[in-house]
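seq:
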Amino acid sequence: MSLLEVKDLHVHYGVIEALKGVSITVEPGQIVTLIGSNGAGKTSLLQAISGIVKKTGGDILFKDASIYKASPRKIVQGGLVQVPEGRHVFPGLSVYENLMMGAYLRKDKKEIANDLKTVYERFPILEKRKNQDASTLSGGEQQMLAMGRALMARPELLLLDEPSMGLAPILVKEIFSIIQDIQQTGTTILLVEQNARMALSIADYAYVLETGRIALQGPAHELAESEDVQNAYLGGGK
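struct:
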């Protein structure tokens, strides 16, 4: 059984059709990546899956049940959580308070405490800065906080929107290493990423989105070898 199945999905913003019948599948335990240029519809697809933007056709199945009309709250409760592009930490709240916002739908206090400990182990800098205003963190630290906050919701499927955006190369490597670590502990990941080379290097399967349609798909290592993908997204050549 697929964990996520998007079927012939359409999204409109007024007269503009952002998604023109997109279909993708995410199997349990995989890292699946979506690559494509700016304006291709990648963020629209994640937001449609998360229930943030309205769909105009198709269906979305999560764990074999349709979430097409579900509210974002219900979707998070069901185990599907998004880390938005631009991180969106809550300014005015401490790092600890931001993390606890990720667990706001949960009631299992003992397990929340265990998960907080796990997040601090994965991101030691967050424990160090737990009493600091989240808005004073560096870009890399804010990305770690946004990912830690999402993990506090105990996702089965984690949607990551441009996690490496605006980060220094050394931090990009660290973030991608953390993404692999999260997958290895049992969380499935759908990753939208401008850094196609890095995304394809860690993903199991990949989709190329062009102007609201899937242009190419296949095992990530095969797409990384594809001349079309290399020329369009990897700067040509090997």
